[in-house]
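for the recovery benchmark. C-alpha cells below, seq after
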C-alpha cells in the first residue's frame, strides 16, 4: 500500500431506532455486527458498525441510531447513495429477498453496471451493484445468505451537489482521484491505489432540494489511509488547500481527521490501525458493549439509558 488515499474506509449514517436498524442490517442484509459501542459525543446513543468478518476498511457501514429523531431529506449537500458490490448473478436473489420483506426495489444501470436500488427502514438510499471489475473480498455469510450472494463491501458512494467543481478539486488535488467517466449530470472518480471501494460518483444538479441531515441520511464519508503518519500528511494537504480540519482524534478502532469539503459534506480520513480486534477477539466481535475509555466509569448509567436490544 502506498502513501495514498486507499478508497473508502467507512460510511456513517443516521437511523431512528436501534432495534430496527440492527435487525435490518444483520437479518435482512446479512452483514456482521462488528462493533457495538456508543457515540463518543453522545454516549446515550449507540454506534453500530456493520461489515464483513473482520470489519475490513471498505466494508464498514456505521450508524448513530438516535431514537425518535425526525426523518431527514436525502438531497443536495449530502452523500445520497451508498453502493454495495454484490457477486455477479446475485441481483435476482436480492430482488426476491427484499420484496419478501415488502421492500420496494427498482432496477437500473449506471455506467454499464446493473443494479437494484431501495431504501432501508429509515429511508437511507442503498444500491446493490454488479461491479464490472473483479471483487475478491471475503464476505460474511448467514444461514440465509451464502457466499454466492453475500455483500462484498462498498462499490461507491454518490455525492449530490449544486456545484461540483470545488468538491472535484478536493478529490483530485488532495485525495488523488481522477475522472473515470462522465455522463449527463453524473461524474465518476476513481483511485488506482486500491481495486475495491475506490469509486466516488458526483451528481451535479441545481434542481435537487437541499438535504436535511436526520434519519435516513448519511452523516459523513470516511476515506482510508494506512496509518497515522500518512493521516497527518493528508492533514497538511487539507490545510494547504485552505480548508479547516480537526486535530487527530483517537476513535479506538482507527485514528481520524474531519473536515467539510466545499459542498458541505463532512469528510473523514481514517487509518487502518488498530482495527476492531483491539478490544475483542475476532470470533466475539460485536457481542458485548464496548465503551470509550473516558466513558467506562459511567458504564452502569449508560447501560440504563441505552435502548434494550432484542
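predicted aa per position
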Amino acid at each position: 500500500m502506498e502513501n495514498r488515499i486507499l478508497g473508502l474506509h467507512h460510511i456513517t449514517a443516521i437511523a431512528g431506532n436501534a432495534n430496527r436498524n440492527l435487525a435490518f442490517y444483520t437479518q435482512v442484509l446479512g452483514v456482521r455486527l462488528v462493533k457495538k459501542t456508543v457515540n463518543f459525543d453522545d454516549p446515550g446513543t449507540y454506534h453500530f458498525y456493520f461489515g464483513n468478518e473482520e470489519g475490513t476498511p471498505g466494508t464498514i457501514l456505521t450508524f448513530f441510531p438516535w431514537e425518535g429523531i425526525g426523518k431527514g431529506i436525502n438531497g443536495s449537500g449530502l452523500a445520497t447513495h451508498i453502493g454495495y458490490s454484490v457477486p455477479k448473478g446475485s441481483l435476482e436473489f436480492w430482488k426476491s429477498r427484499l420484496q419478501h420483506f415488502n421492500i420496494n426495489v427498482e432496477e437500473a444501470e449506471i455506467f454499464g453496471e446493473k443494479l437494484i436500488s431501495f431504501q432501508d427502514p429509515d429511508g437511507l438510499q442503498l444500491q446493490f451493484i454488479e461491479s464490472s471489475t473483479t471483487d475478491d473480498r471475503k464476505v460474511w455469510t448467514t444461514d440465509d445468505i451464502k457466499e454466492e450472494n453475500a455483500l462484498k463491501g462498498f462499490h461507491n458512494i454518490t455525492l449530490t451537489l449544486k456545484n461540483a467543481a470545488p468538491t472535484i478539486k478536493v478529490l483530485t488535488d488532495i485525495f488523488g482521484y481522477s475522472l473515470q467517466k462522465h455522463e449527463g449530470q453524473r461524474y465518476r472518480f476513481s483511485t488506482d491505489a486500491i481495486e475495491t471501494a475506490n469509486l466516488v460518483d458526483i451528481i451535479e444538479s441545481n434542481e435537487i432540494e437541499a438535504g436535511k441531515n436526520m434519519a435516513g441520511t448519511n452523516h459523513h464519508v470516511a476515506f482510508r489511509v494506512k496509518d497515522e503518519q500518512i493521516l497527518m500528511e493528508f492533514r497538511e494537504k487539507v490545510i494547504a488547500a485552505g480548508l479547516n480540519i480537526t486535530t487527530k482524534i483517537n476513535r479506538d478502532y482507527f485514528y481520524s481527521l474531519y473536515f467539510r469539503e466545499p459542498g458541505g459534506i463532512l469528510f473523514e480520513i481514517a487509518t487502518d490501525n488498530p482495527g476492531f480486534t483491539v478490544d475483542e477477539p475476532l470470533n466475539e466481535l460485536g457481542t458485548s458493549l464496548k465503551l470509550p475509555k473516558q466513558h467506562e466509569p459511567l458504564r452502569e448509567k449508560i447501560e440504563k439509558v441505552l435502548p434494550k436490544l432484542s
